[in-house]
UniProtKB/TrEMBL annotation:
Keywords: Hydrolase, Metal-binding, Protease, Serine protease. The lineage of its organism: Bacteria, Bacillati, Bacillota, Bacilli, Bacillales. GO terms for biological process: proteolysis. Pfam families: Peptidase_S8 (PF00082). SUPFAM superfamilies: Subtilisin-like. PROSITE patterns: SUBTILASE, SUBTILASE_HIS. This is Peptidase S8. Belongs to the peptidase S8 family. GO terms for molecular function: metal ion binding; serine-type endopeptidase activity. Gene3D superfamilies: Peptidase S8/S53 domain. The active site is at D151, H184, S338. InterPro entries: Peptidase_S8/S53_dom, Peptidase_S8/S53_dom_sf, Peptidase_S8_His-AS, Peptidase_S8_subtilisin-like, Peptidase_S8_subtilisin-rel, Subtilisin_Carlsberg-like. It comes from Paenibacillus rigui. Residues 143-371 form the Peptidase S8/S53 domain.
């Protein structure tokens, strides 16, 4: 629910707002009372931050308020209220809702030796072969491309990921590394950029660099404010691509604002569409127009039964029984639009490595134009396009953005 702030008098200043905020803060960290307060201008936002710092020793509860600089906002736990805030410089307030990683539809534990490999030969999972990524590696392997994976973190000890994992951030505990305690983020990282000389696996872009952004806890849950902070970190650290394998049903103006800022900074945002098997609808943030929305396909090149299906999906990719890295050096087979999204992120890394500077809209256009038409869906005959790494990279190599 949004509380648009239209009332108030011009005498109400940022210092007065900080006093109001202190009185309105909830005593404990009640998730149902978390909100995002957005300011109309950068000047007013900065002034409020200044006043908060000045009063923080006197009012220690203000230290629990989290700035969201990328969208000129504050995340805080407020007492339940249905009244607009009477400050003219406040744009709006919305609930800081929870968001989940797109949970896989199947989980199969697999030992490293069972991936149809020998001790000398690494395994190329079926999805990576299917999109013709190995044929593209002669032209690009994702060199010099930085990918922010906003997820549950990554396993820095996994032998297939050691070469590709770079510095990241743990938004749940900034004093700790973004280590994965769930597995989802590690699986995504493997499909994007794993590399092994022996019995492990190879990802779509095996020379790309992954920067894990841990915004989700061990249960795969985060708040919208955590995602916004993750996007902010990626923009500040000049990340080229952001992988978002998660979603929610409700629209968030604050999240859209953060995504728009990343888009305007030239960052390509890729997101999964959801695993409910719904027709004509997909989750946020994939539904936002600044995002490349991804659906999942099967080995037979058909839309997976669990994948949401909508004209708002930009591209489909393999998402059924995807074999990738897991915690403690292991491997798992998962199904979901999350897995499809990591394939698309990898292909974009191949493209950007070959031609740096491509804008988000150019990338979206190129992967759609050079995709593989796999089937018609529905009575109206909606064309479904599956990503094709070799074609997409060839179009970039020919110099036709």
């Amino acid at each position: 629910m949004f509380f648009r702030c239209t009332g108030g008098t011009t005498e109400l200043k940022p210092s007065t707002f900080v006093e109001w905020l202190h009185d309105a803060l909830e005593g404990d960290d009640n998730a149902s009372c978390k909100h995002i307060i957005r300011f109309k201008t950068r000047k007013d936002f900065t002034a409020c931050i200044h006043h908060m710092k000045r009063r923080s020793k006197e009012w220690p509860r203000l230290n629990n308020v989290q700035p969201l600089k990328i969208i000129r906002a504050l995340s805080c736990t407020l007492q339940t209220t249905s009244q607009p805030i009477p400050f003219p410089f406040i744009e709006s307030i919305e609930a800081d809702t929870q968001i989940q990683v797109h949970a896989p539809k199947a989980v199969t534990a697999i030992q490293p030796s069972s991936g149809k490999t020998t001790n000398e030969t690494p395994n190329i999972p079926w999805g990576i072969k299917h999109i013709r990524a190995p044929q593209a590696w002669a032209k690009s392997k994702g060199e010099r491309i930085r990918i922010g994976v906003i997820d549950t973190g990554a396993d820095f000890t996994h032998p297939d990921l050691r070469h590709c994992l770079s510095y990241g951030i743990n938004l749940l505990n900034r004093h700790m590394m973004p280590n994965d305690d769930n597995g989802h983020g590690t699986h995504i990282a493997g499909t994007i950029a794993a590399s092994s000389r022996q019995r492990g696996i190879i990802g779509v872009a095996p020379q790309a660099m992954i920067h894990p952004v841990k915004a989700f806890d061990h249960q795969g849950s985060a708040f919208v404010s955590d995602i916004i902070n993750g996007i902010d970190w990626c923009v500040k650290n000049q990340i080229h691509i952001i992988n978002m394998s998660f979603g929610m049903k409700t629209y968030s103006r604050a999240l859209e604002s953060a995504v728009r800022n990343a888009y305007q900074a030239g960052v390509i945002v890729v997101a999964s569409s959801g695993n409910e098997g719904k027709q004509a609808t997909i989750d946020y943030p994939a539904r936002l127009r600044q995002v490349i929305a991804v659906g999942a396909t099967t080995r037979k090149g058909q839309i997976a039964s669990f994948s949401n299906n909508s004209k708002n999906i930009d591209i489909y990719a393999p998402g059924e029984k995807i074999y990738s890295t897991w915690l403690r050096g292991k491997y798992h087979e998962l199904s979901g639009t999350s897995m499809a999204t990591s394939h698309v992120t990898g292909v974009i890394a191949l493209m950007l490595s070959r031609r740096p500077g491509l804008k988000p809209l150019q990338i979206k256009s190129l992967i759609k134009k050079n995709a593989k038409l796999i089937l018609k869906s529905g009575k109206g005959g909606l064309g479904i396009k599956e990503i094709h790494a070799l074609r997409a990279l060839s179009s970039v190599a020919k110099g036709s953005p």
